Amino acid sequence: MDKKENSTWMDAVNGIAGAGESDSEEGMKNSRMPEAELPPGQGKTDMNAQVPVRKTERYQTGDAAAVTAAQAVQATAASGISSQSRAAGMPGQPVIPETEETKRLKENFWPVAPWALAYSAFYAFCMYRNGSGITFPFFVAGSLLFFCFSFTKLGITLKKGSCFYMIAMLLLGISTFCTDDGILIFFNKLGAFLLMMSFLLKQFYDTSKWKLGKYLGSICVLFFASFGELGRPFSDGSSYNKIRDKKTDKRVWYFVIGLVIGIPLLLLVLLLLASADAVFRQMTDKLLRNIHLSGILNILFRITVLFFGAYALTAYLCKRKIREDVPDTRRGEPVLAITVTGLLTLLYLLFSGIQIAGLFLGQLRLPEGYTYAMYAREGFFQLLTVSLLNC
């Protein structure tokens, strides 16, 4: 190789290395070949020497390799930023798709939300200063009616066995206003609450393999996780307003304008009628005397809490986030369980035999000092504890 060709080759190498000077000075130093590594008898070359046309192919090949390497570095950096964004929960994180029930809830916001508002008003009517009166079973029936209506809008049909939960809740509601024992009322309401939550879980999940622990855990998750959905009436209402028909928009506005005009007009006519008739004035005066600001705020608070609570509960159920499967944790020897349950079964048979002989065969002899009323009321909580142990 003569000196001219060597000079041309070195110019091409230095030209490729010079292309990276704008990125870093260190890259230029690493790309340039040291003078000591040149073949013997060859020194520095002229940097301004022209590159012959026959060497252009080598220059283009080296330049393409440098560009490819830069693109690879940029792709690696972008990949690192994207992974950091996903780890930090930034917009790059994949979005969990909505369930069909959630989509239907947003599409049917207008019928579901007014029903939830009517249900909360009905609750305030039944339970205001009358927590365990004759209206309690009507409130239980209204709760079942509201959720069954919501199921129809969500495309959910009642599953087999749901009637048991509904009848049991109604019976507990009737039992509540038939007694004045505070402890019994508490357990009746607790039982109605647990049955209602179990009834709702049954409609959205396969609970055929669930045990008592799974039920209680799922009820706790459902109750506390629903607090995270309290803002859903606002978000679902906003989504519904974007997709609903303009004709519906006008009707809603006309309804609001009608209320704004009608309420002051109603008060004006009420005052005129009260001043025109003494009997009507006396009745109106008594009615207004019984209306207090604290009572109005109490009613509004009850309506607000139950409205948001009922809608949030339905919204969380639609997400289906509770795990449905139940892992099999049985690891013990079945003979042990059979022995224990066998002994308990014999004891229960003896106890039941005594009750049948005493109550139905006329051989009941009460201990001295006992009355039939005392005998009938005694042992409720003990038997309730035994029932819980059997679960």
Task: Give a short synopsis of this structure.
By secondary structure, this protein is mainly alpha-helical.
Name the descriptors.
single chain; 391 residues; mainly alpha; 0% strand; disordered N terminus
Explain this structure to me?
The protein is mainly α and 391 residues long. Helices cover 71% and strands 0% of the residues. It has helices at 3-18, 25-31, 56-87, 100-107, 109-127, 136-154, 162-177, 182-204, 212-225, 232-243, 246-276, 278-289, 293-319, 334-359, 372-377, 380-390. Helix 8 crosses helix 9.
Number of helices: 16
SSE order = HHHHHHHHHHHHHHHH
Judged by helices, strands and strand pairing, the structural class is mainly alpha
N-to-C span: 96 Å
Fold topology:
Elements: H1 3-18, H2 25-31, H3 56-87, H4 100-107, H5 109-127, H6 136-154, H7 162-177, H8 182-204, H9 212-225, H10 232-243, H11 246-276, H12 278-289, H13 293-319, H14 334-359, H15 372-377, H16 380-390
